[in-house]
UniProtKB/TrEMBL annotation, chain A:
The lineage of its organism: Bacteria, Pseudomonadati, Pseudomonadota, Alphaproteobacteria, Sphingomonadales. Keywords: DNA-binding. This is Helix-turn-helix transcriptional regulator. Transmembrane segments: none annotated. SUPFAM superfamilies: lambda repressor-like DNA-binding domains. It comes from Sphingomonas xanthus. The keyword DNA-binding applies. Residues 5-59 form the HTH cro/C1-type domain. Gene3D superfamilies: lambda repressor-like DNA-binding domains. One of its GO terms (molecular function) is DNA binding. InterPro entries: Cro/C1-type_HTH, Lambda_DNA-bd_dom_sf.
Automatic annotation (TrEMBL), chain B:
Keywords: Membrane, Transmembrane, Transmembrane helix. The chain crosses the membrane at residues 12-32, 44-66, 78-98, 110-129. This is Uncharacterized protein. It comes from the Bacteria.
Length: 66, 138
């Protein structure tokens, strides 16, 4: 699933490691999500959205609209 | 320390304990067996302890999967274990049929868990190819 995570992270000047620490996941998780290799669970998607102050739909692009 | 690091540390301690018991049991049990100093009950114990240690290894891996809080790492670990299971059972089945037709020698069944541990390496490599990471180090 495509997403805007990399852009949002870059806008804040965060490295993958910093974002990983803020979300309490591994850096590899962030990399896998950013590259679309792994789709996060709903609870993790909510944590990501809350961290950026956005809705899930503003970060993750629905495959039907892709 | 992150929850994942804690889970990894607990896993390593469990494995260290199991491997220690396994090594001691194999060495002492083997020596007593070769020396003919084992009673029937002693032989049962000497055979069961290493086998139960292998079972404890699977338990430790299961606990590690349960305790991992990083869902991506947990998914990789589950995937790795499934690939190892498929590999070990496939090898066991193929070897079983080959030995039924007397094409290969029969081997002790404890080699199948060994092949499963080898399969973990294949699973880790598969994760590296598919997801770009080896996952948690086991």
């Amino acid at each position: 699933m495509k997403n805007r995570l990399k852009i949002l992270r870059a806008e804040r000047g965060w490295s993958q490691q910093v974002l990983a620490e803020r979300l309490q996941v591994s850096r590899q998780s962030i990399n896998a999500i950013e590259t679309g290799k792994y789709d996060p669970s709903l609870p993790l998607a909510f944590r990501i959205a809350e961290l950026f102050g956005l809705t899930i739909e503003q970060i993750f692009i629905s495959p039907s609209q892709d | 320390m992150s929850p994942n690091k804690l889970a990894q540390r607990r896993y390593l301690w469990r494995i260290l304990a199991v491997v220690t018991v396994y090594m001691v049991a194999v060495v002492i049990g083997g020596r007593l067996h070769h020396a003919g100093q084992l009673s029937p009950a002693g032989a049962v114990a000497a055979a069961l302890v290493p086998g139960l240690c292998i079972a404890a290894t699977f338990w430790a891996i299961g606990r590690f999967i349960v305790e991992l809080e990083d869902e991506f790492m947990r998914m990789l670990m589950v995937r790795q274990s499934l690939i190892a299971t498929a590999f070990a059972l496939s090898i066991a089945a193929i070897h079983g049929f080959l030995s039924s037709f007397d094409l290969v020698a029969r081997i002790d069944a404890y080699w199948w868990p060994v092949s499963w541990f080898f399969g973990l390496g294949i699973g880790a490599a598969a994760n590296r190819i598919r997801y770009g990471t080896w996952g948690q180090c086991l």
